[in-house]
Amino acid sequence: MDPQAPVFLFVGRLSEEKGVLELPLILHKIQETIPQAKLKIAGTGVAEEKLKSLLPEAEFLGWVDHTALPKIYSEVDMLLLPSRFDTFGCVVTEAMSCGLPVAAYDSKGPKDIISHGVDGLLAQNAESLATAIVEKIQQGSWGNMYAATLKKAATYNAEEIMDRILADLG
């Protein structure tokens, strides 16, 4: 990661319920401290035109085939997930399996997967999420998150999950 020009990514349906209209708040707050920060957006949806007007500087990738996502994940520094309603966002585990840390709201789903400050970041709102991202970048400990993210993602494969279910059942 270039701490002077981090690249963030959103992947998903571009609709208000996915929290995409908070992306401008997050990016612009980050850019107050790190002006060269960038955002890529993969997806389409009803909020696309509004989002384009609010984020003319963002790179809109349109709909991206699932098989192309790992390459995109490898080209960015962090996934942003501003949704408050995803109970288990597959995009979180997809990104983490590629070693990409995730910044999300501290809500059901993300908080069950992400360990704040270890393999991702959790916050209550757009401003505090942006602040947490900037602080982590300024601490210079971003590299540690990549390794921790891969380690966490390994626990979300089918075999590991089945073992945990069987252990819980006794």
Description of the molecule:
The protein has helices spanning 23-33, 48-54, 69-74, 90-97, 110-113, 126-139, 142-153, 158-169, and strands spanning 7-11, 38-42, 59-62, 78-81, 102-105, 120-123. A 6-stranded parallel beta sheet has the order 3-2-1-4-5-6, sandwiched between helices. The chain is globular. By secondary structure, it is α/β, with parallel strands linked by helices. The longest helix is centred in the last third of the chain and has 14 residues, at 126-139. It is built from 8 helices and 6 strands, in the order βαβαβαβαβαβααα. It has one domain: Rossmann fold (3-Layer(aba) Sandwich), CATH 3.40.50. The model has no long low-confidence stretch (mean pLDDT 88).
Write the layout of secondary structure elements.
Blueprint: E1 7-11, H1 23-33, E2 38-42, H2 48-54, E3 59-62, H3 69-74, E4 78-81, H4 90-97, E5 102-105, H5 110-113, E6 120-123, H6 126-139, H7 142-153, H8 158-169
Parallel strand pairs: 1-2, 1-4, 2-3, 4-5, 5-6
| Structural class estimated from helices and strands | alpha/beta
CATH top level assignment: Alpha Beta
The SSE order reads EHEHEHEHEHEHHH
Radius of gyration: 16 Å
Amino-to-carboxy terminus distance? 44 Å
Provide the helix percentage.
40-55%
| CATH superfamily label | Glycogen Phosphorylase B
Strand composition percent: 15-25%
What is the name of the CATH architecture? 3-Layer(aba) Sandwich
Low-confidence stretches: none
Keywords:
170 residues, alpha/beta, 8 helices
What's a quick, concise take on this entry?
The chain is α/β, with parallel strands linked by helices. It has eight helices and six strands; from the N terminus they run E-H-E-H-E-H-E-H-E-H-E-H-H-H.
